[in-house]
Amino acid sequence: KKMGSEGGDFIFVKGKSLCLVKGNISASGEKIYHVPNGAYYEQTTINEEKGEKWFCTEQEAIDAGWRISKL
Questions:
Q1: What gap in Å lies between CA 69 and CA 39, rounded to an integer?
Q2: CA-CA distance, 31 to 28, in Å (whole number)?
Q3: pTM for the whole thing?
Q4: Per-residue pLDDT tens for 23-56?
Q5: Which of 8, 12, 6 has its CA nearest to residue 35?
Q6: 3-class SS at 52?
Q7: Closest C-alpha to 12, from 20, 27, 24, 1
Q8: N or C: which terminus of the chain has fewer CB atoms within 10 Å of its end residue's CB?
Q9: Tens of pLDDT, residues 4-13
């Protein structure tokens, strides 16, 4: 595990980075991101068919219009 240049966590697997910030869309359509060690990180799943996605940094999520989980 290494730290990304912007402070985001990355895991490198065979030369490729695995992004760890989870971009989840709530039932009301709100775009929320979750970081490792966040209250809902482990139970949050990503469904890319619904528009949910993985981000490599928090800044990437913010720039895409997502907000951090309140817990």
A1: 8
A2: 9
A3: 0.75
A4: 999 999 999 999 999 999 999 999 999 999 999 9
A5: 8
A6: coil
A7: 1
A8: C
A9: 444 455 555 5
